[in-house]
């Protein structure tokens, strides 16, 4: 910017001097010009005399690996959609392979037409977007297509489809050399396909790796995306997994997941008899209540009163009451 | 015998208490508590405000502090008399003077010098005081620390503090504490180690914890409290919680009766001014004043003489000669 300003200032001075053409500038004395107008004017004089040139810089626009298609007629079945997606995948695979890249992520965008009955002229477009992470980045069209097909098998929409787009996130292919005795996934593609099928069946929030949450809420966990690498490093050798450590563990608790709903008979506000699908009997000994509560600042606030009870048959059971509902958490070994 | 809360901290325990001293005094009065002790962390910061508010509400205020000991444990101390208050203040001053702000720690070996007039509570926190006993074995530390406290403060001034907050695992520690009390013939003392006046104070305390730990509520996790049980509780509630240990409740009022110190009649004692042999501070001040007067007035009039005598008499009566000699 500074250089540009300087050029403009020099040009203004040159115009005042009556220099209006490159020929007039080239005819000026180089040394005299430099002494009066500085180094930028010298560079301009050199360019006017053909003694220097500016090299053009080639700037490539970032390559976008996206294919899209707008259907002439709205479609209501999966076949034309799958046909288009296969074509997209073939084109993307060719483009990626040509520059030695593979796809690590696919993004599928489907646009619906939501024509209103009362206002047929106004067509409101709605979209659906879904990102597919590919565990082992690849350009294998069959594999990628199977992944999309599995997902779309369970895909339902009330509105007809007007457009579809597929974009790929490229990455350099991984080059790994495994040790002789190292175990690895025998078929990462099959794993990804299985995961995709399970996700389609169960929903994305119900598949992954459970991670224990750092909270006082017993057995609280969240699901994180399944990762093969994470499995390898989950339990460092020689260490007990964190999930198994408790501050005062003297007996292991076998948890029922989810906790079993129970009905409890009370005596002086303390549990006296428990009855559930898994456990039933008279309570002969009890410890508690252990009061726990948290997340009071949000709608997810919770509170529970836990009891450790011993049944007539000798079983040690942990149960809790929350919002008036009793549940059996598990049995101590 | 009534229950008195003898371990409670206010918002003056920086980010460790959720209620102002006045709120604590008000709730103590609501709960018909005859006396209550305020033990702020490493200071008696809230004591004055608490004392005034407590007296207004008809609750007898007791002064104390939680001392951060080297090794990370917390030693709750209660002031029995004026000597105890003086010792506590000196101990705290020394600890603060040599430490960075917010990192005050009392040395175990300086306790004997300032032990007179103080009553200490032995609790679960002291089981982990590494510096108190050289052995790193936790079970030995647990049993040897009471020995040390008895040696320093005297058997009659050490109480074993029991707390029940409905938390899993605390009963195991309480059983160990009861065993120690039996083994050393120490009295048990039930407290709720209250950190806020009403149950909703837990929310303030959780927010304070986040500020102290430089985090926020959503990710603070186990840094936050497990439940809202650290509030002031009535005698009926505490008797129900300690139904198996009624003596632990009764000992609270017994101990409260012993702790007679009050900030009300504390007054202020000016530092002593060194005077020449044969002089008291009064006589030395009188000498200096008359000497100065003679220099100022060539002849001292009767009016000036009377004025000087009146002033000196008042200074002597109020015990201020040290102050006038110093300034």
- Summed up, the helix count of chain B is 12
Count the strands of chain A?
12
C-alpha Rg of chain A, in Å?
35 Å
Order of strands, widest sheet of chain A:
7-8-9-10-11-12
Commentary on this structure:
The complex is a heterodimer of chains A (333) and B (327). Chain A has 333 residues and is of the alpha+beta class. Chain A has a 6-stranded antiparallel barrel with strand order 7-8-9-10-11-12. A 4-stranded antiparallel sheet of chain A has the order 1-4-2-3, with helices on one face. Chain A has a two-stranded antiparallel ribbon with strand order 5-6. Among the domains of chain A are: 2-48, no CATH class; 66-171, Dna Ligase, domain 1; 253-332, no CATH class. In chain A, β5 (209-212) and β6 form a beta hairpin. Chain A has 8 helices and 12 strands. Chain A has helices at residues 2-17, 22-26, 30-37, 39-48, 78-98, 141-153, 188-202, 228-232, and strands at residues 66-75, 102-115, 123-138, 161-171, 209-212, 221-224, 253-267, 270-276, 280-294, 302-311, 316-322, 325-332. Chain B folds into 2 domains: 21-258, Alpha-Beta Barrel (TIM Barrel), CATH 3.20.20.140; 281-326, no CATH class. A 6-stranded mixed sheet of chain B has the order 1-2-3-4-5-6. In chain B, α5 (170-184) links the parallel β5 (158-162) and β6. Chain B is elongated, with a radius of gyration of 24 Å. Residues 129-136 of chain B have low confidence and may be disordered. At the A-B interface, β9 of A face α6 of B.
Topology:
The complex is a heterodimer of chains A (333) and B (327).
Chain A: H1 2-17, H2 22-26, H3 30-37, H4 39-48, E1 66-75, H5 78-98, E2 102-115, E3 123-138, H6 141-153, E4 161-171, H7 188-202, E5 209-212, E6 221-224, H8 228-232, E7 253-267, E8 270-276, E9 280-294, E10 302-311, E11 316-322, E12 325-332
Antiparallel strand pairs in A: 1-4, 2-3, 2-4, 5-6, 7-8, 7-12, 8-9, 9-10, 10-11, 11-12
Helix pairs in contact in A: 3-4, 5-6, 6-7
Chain B: H1 21-30, E1 35-41, H2 47-56, E2 60-68, E3 74-79, H3 82-98, E4 118-122, H4 138-153, E5 158-162, H5 170-184, E6 188-190, H6 201-212, H7 217-220, H8 235-241, H9 246-258, H10 281-296, H11 302-318, H12 321-326
Parallel strand pairs in B: 1-2, 4-5, 5-6
Antiparallel strand pairs in B: 2-3, 3-4
